[in-house]
Structures are given as structure tokens and as C-alpha cells.
Write a structure and sequence with these properties.
alpha+beta; 316 residues; five-stranded antiparallel sheet; 23% helix; 2 domains
Amino acid sequence: MAGTDEDAVAAADDALYVLTAVLLTPAKFPSVLGDDYPEACAALGLPPLADGYGLVLGQDGDGARWTVVVDDVSLVAVAVASWDCGMEYDLSPDERTVVAALPGWPLAVAVAAPGVPAPHDPGPESADQPALCPPDTTVWGPAQRRLGADEIAMQWAQWREQIDDAEFPAASGGPDGGEGADGDMPPGGLSQGGAGTASTSPDAGASAAEGAGEVGTPARADDAPVSGHGGVRRVLAEARSYVDTPPPLGRVRSSFAPGDARTLRADGPGWSLVARTDDIAFILLDEEPGEVLPVGRGPALPGLLEALDKMAVRPS
């Protein structure tokens, strides 16, 4: 496995100053790395183990960036939960739990360890592979599209209040299960805040939800080009196919939402969908830079969301 060289592990484990940590599990992984769990693991050269991993991002005494992969998922989950609640937690993984020490960081981190040189990649003498680096989110593409979906899921109320249900096109009962409507947003407006990992660290700064754009007013029923949006129909058809043919693990995830609802997240080639099981959905497409497409419930969307929720991966 990449990064298991004993010298590299020792170099990273010796006086590692932990900056942040994230989970890499089927139910919760940095979506910026891929549309599903196996794809996110592949980005790090890791096999997609059923129980997943914890990723500890930090600097060594020389300031070099390291990502330490551990199999003690519970320890990292406790640390992340504590930091999210504003509490201190000393994350110090036992060396016996270290699976790999990878040079570089796969996610953007906005802070640095005090008293050591500025963050930089380890030299070739310390690492046996190229250093990891965050995906490019300066231009619209899969990574930024997935970050946009992350923002909508985290700030659902903010996005939902911009939609007037009365202005949704009348449902036709067609394959899109409630018509889609375009909502303009400045290109790149969804991606501010880097990889969104900062919120898991007590010192990580602004979250990815800051700087989000706005969803425009849904088009009315007589706006034929919008109510027949081909991208919306394609995404909902592909999402429906997941019910009959399960996709790679993590393509569909279900998480907590207020009341009896669940927040659904589904991804596929070139698209991301965020929905509440008791409400509407939002779709983002690679071919529609900076656009958010609201989808009304209509006659078919509720059934689709219920079916997706039943087969989705949930946090343990």
C-alpha cells in the first residue's frame, strides 16, 4: 500500500502537530475527493475498507505537511465531534493504529502549527511518493460542484427560503417527478472556504458555507425551456436507476435532518443532488457552471426520495 514505508511513517509520526482531522468512511468522506467512497479512497491510494479511516492532517517539526491515515475511526470521530462543539480535544493516535503516512494534504487547510516553518511538502528524502494536494476548485468542475452540494446540505434553510413553492412549474407527472427550474448564482460562489475541512478543527476558520450565492426565483409553468430541463430529467433518471442497481458505496448518503426527515445526498457522473425527504431537491451539474436547479416535489419525487433513503448509507 502506498505510504506504508516505515521511515515515512516514523517521520510523520514524530512530533506531528495536528491541525485538523476528517473521516473517510462510506457514510462520511470529503466529497471534494470523489463522487463515492471508493473514488475518495483511490485519490489517496487506499483500499476502500468497510470500516473506513480517519485522516489526521498536520505538520512535523520541520513544518512539512503530512496526512496520517489511522484505522481508529472512533477516535477521530470523537475528536471531530468535540471540535465541532467548540471543545478542546487532544488527538494523539496510537502508532499501532497508523495505516499510512502520506506526504502532503489532500484538502485545503487554512491554519498552520505555531513555532514551526510554514507548511511545505516533505522533501524526497522523507517521502517515497509525490505529495498529496487539494483538488483544483478555482474553476467550475466536479470538485467545486460537490463542494456546492455540501454547502446546500449544511445551509438548507438559507437556500430553501429563497424558493417560493407557488412559483414552481406545475408538475406534469413526467419522468422528472416535479419540474426543475434554474437559479442563477455567481460562478464559484459555492466554493468559498476551500475544501470545507476547516469546520472540523477548532482553529480552522471559515466554513465552506460562507459566501454562498443565491438561488433565483423558479420559472413559472409557462416557461417551457426551463420546465423541460434535460439535465434535471437525466439526473433524476440516473438517481432512480440507483434503486434497482446499487451504485458504488457512498454515492447515496442519508444524514440527520430536523423532525422525521432525512437529508439525502446523491452524486453521479457530472451531477450532485441534495434533498430533504419531506421537501424539494436541488441539483448541480458540471455542464451548468454556478447554477443551482431546484426541483419541485411533484407526483414522483417523494417516492424517489423515499426509495433512495432506504438504500442510502447512514452514519453508524
